[in-house]
Amino acid sequence: MKKAIAMRLGGWSAISAAVLLAACSSAPPPAPEAAPAPAPVAAPPVLETPKPPPAVAEDPITNPRVSQATTPRAYRRDAATHLYGLHGGRIYKGRMPPLLYAVGVLQVEVDRNGSVKEVSWMRAPKHAPEVMAEIEKMVRAAAPYPAPAKIGRVTYTDTWLWHKSGRFQLDTLTEGQD
């Protein structure tokens, strides 16, 4: 019986020793704290490549560069507005002075897509060949013009009023002359 008690005490001693050792041992090291997440880096801006202008369509709702003019005279206003829109910085503001550097009358032929087919002078300012060259250059560079959807190909005429400063007005949209 003594032997049984000794075994029981030995078992209890082993258990007690294990409990004591567990209580005395240091706690496991804490889990390392997670480092704060880096702030999100903004993506570089996406630069959009300019898209080429759409092909000229004959629908004025989908393409505002379509003229609904039914006569060359009515088309002349659309063409003048188009030129003013492209050369706004060169338009003479206000009434033109009584003496102008040059006055020229130009005919422009525009095909059904708004391309310039021909430019011809009805009254050329021959004393100012640099003005003639500049006007022709501006007219050709302004293509494509509004497509003359209702009349197809059109030849319109406009008078160029040229100031010595290099600014101009078109007779169609002129503010008058003193």
Automatic annotation (TrEMBL):
Residues 29-43 have a biased composition (Pro residues). The keyword Signal applies. Keywords: Signal. Residues 1-27 form the signal peptide. Residues 29-71 are annotated as: Disordered. PROSITE patterns: PROKAR_LIPOPROTEIN (PS51257). This is Energy transducer TonB. It comes from Ramlibacter henchirensis. The lineage of its organism: Bacteria, Pseudomonadati, Pseudomonadota, Betaproteobacteria, Burkholderiales.
